[in-house]
Amino acid sequence: MSLDSAETKTESTTDVATSVNQLADRARRASRTLARANRDWKDKALRAIADTIDAHRQQIMAANAKDLENGRERGTSAAMLDRLKLDDQRIDGLISALEELIGLPDPVGRVVRGETLPNGLRMRQINVPMGVIGTIYEARPNVTVDIAGLSLKSGNAVLLRGGSAALNSNVALVNYIRNALESVSLPRDLVISVDEYGREGADAMMAARGRIDVLIPRGGRELIQRVVTTAKVPVIETGEGNVHIFMSASADEEMATDILLNAKTHRPSVCNTVETLLIAKDSPAAPAVLRALAEAGVTLHTDARVASLVPGIETIAAGEDDWRNEYLDLDIAVKLVDTMDEALEHIREYSTGHTEAIITSSLAESERFIAEIESAAVIVNASTRFTDGGQLGLGAEVGISTQKMHARGPMGLSELTTTKWIVQGDGHIRK
C-alpha cells in the first residue's frame, strides 16, 4: 500500500478501472505544468530526486530488504533476487544516472527539420513529449527511478506498475520522488504508482486508451507478450534477450575469453547477457573459452561436437528449448557451426531481436555480420553488456526496444518524445 494512499486512492476503490483512469487524468493535468518547465527547472527536479534518494538510502535499502526476504520465502530464483536487490553500489548507480540526465540536452523543442517553403510558409517539425507514459515492469526497483528521471526530463508524466515482488522498495522510491518534485514546485502527480491495485491495476492501464499515450512493458516473455497482445493503448515492445555471440575461427583466444566471461557472468540476470554461443568448427580458441566459462561456474548446454572439445568437463545435452531459452542465470547454450552462413541462419531462427555480437579478426566477417543481422544492436569484438542506455551515453533507459518503430534499441530521452509540425504564415491560403 502506498505511503501516499490517502492521496492516491479515490472514493470508488472497488472500481479499479475508474480509479486508474482518474490517476491517469491527474497525471495528464500534471503534465501540462511540466510542459511549461524549461531545462533548468527539470534539472533542478532531477537534482532534488538524486539528493533525496541519497539522503534516504538507508530507508530505501530497509524497504528493499523486506522485498528480498519475502522473495526468498516464496522461493524466488537467485537471478530474480539479483534483479530485485538494491545496495549502496546500485543506489550510487541510480544517482549517477540521474546526474548524467542532468548533463544531457533537453530533447523537447529540438528541431528535427525546418525550412521556409517557396510560398513563404515557415515550417518546423519539433520534438514534443508523449504526454502520459505507462510502464509495467517486474522486480526491478531501479527501473522506478530510471523511468521517473527519463520521463521528467523528456516532459512526460508517468504511471508505474512495478509488481508485487518489489512493492516495499517501489513504495519508498515513489514517495521520495514525489516529495522531491513538490520541493521544486512541480506536481507530485508527475509520478504515480498504481501498485496498490495489483494485477487489476495493470489491466486497467492496458485498457486506458486516450488517457495513457504509450505503454512500455519491461520484464520476462510472459509479461511482455501479455501486454503486447492485450493492451488497447499503443505499446512499445521491449525484448527478452536471447542474445547470441558468434565466435569466428579467427577470434583471438584472450579477447574471446574476456568477452564471453563478461557477457555471461558480469550480471547474468539481465537481458543483455549472452545466452547462446555459436563457435566456428575450426576455432582454436574454443577449448580455452569453454573451460574458462565452466571454471567460472557456467553450466554448458551443448551439442555433442562441443562436448567433445572439453573432455572432463560436465555438460548438459542441448535440446530445442535451449536454443530459445533466456536463462538469465549462469547457463549458456553452445553450438558448433560449420560456416558463418550456418551461424547467421541460427540467429535468424532463434533471435529475439535484442543484441547479437561477433568476435573476429576479419574485417570482411564483421562487415557481413553488421549488414545481415537484423537485431536492434549489433556488436563487434565487445561484450553484449554494452547494450545499455547508461553505457551508450543516454543517461539511463526505459528498456531495450526490439521492434522496428521510431524507438529501437536502448530507449532514452529522444525515444520518449514524438514530433509536432509547426506551420507559420502571413495570411496564407491554399489555392
UniProtKB/TrEMBL annotation:
Coiled-coil residues: none
Boundaries of every Aldehyde dehydrogenase domain copy: 17-296
Keyword line: Amino-acid biosynthesis, Cytoplasm, NADP, Oxidoreductase, Proline biosynthesis
UniProt-listed Enzyme Commission number(s): 1.2.1.41
Keyword Oxidoreductase: yes
Leader sequence residues: none
Subcellular location: Cytoplasm
Pathway(s) served: Amino-acid biosynthesis; L-proline biosynthesis; L-glutamate 5-semialdehyde from L-glutamate: step 2/2
Catalytic activity field: L-glutamate 5-semialdehyde + phosphate + NADP(+) = L-glutamyl 5-phosphate + NADPH + H(+)
InterPro entries cross-referenced by the UniProt entry: Ald_DH/histidinol_DH (IPR016161), Ald_DH_C (IPR016163), Ald_DH_N (IPR016162), Aldehyde_DH_dom (IPR015590), G-glutamylP_reductase_CS (IPR020593), Glu-5-SA_DH (IPR012134), GPR_dom (IPR000965)
One GO MF term: glutamate-5-semialdehyde dehydrogenase activity
Major localisation: cytoplasm
Enzyme class, first EC level, given as a word: oxidoreductase
Cross-referenced NCBIfam families: PRK00197.1, proA
Family note: Belongs to the gamma-glutamyl phosphate reductase family.
Function noted in UniProt: Catalyzes the NADPH-dependent reduction of L-glutamate 5-phosphate into L-glutamate 5-semialdehyde and phosphate. The product spontaneously undergoes cyclization to form 1-pyrroline-5-carboxylate.
Protein's name in the database: Gamma-glutamyl phosphate reductase
Organism this protein belongs to: Glutamicibacter bergerei
UniProt lineage: Bacteria, Bacillati, Actinomycetota, Actinomycetes, Micrococcales
Gene from which this protein is expressed: proA
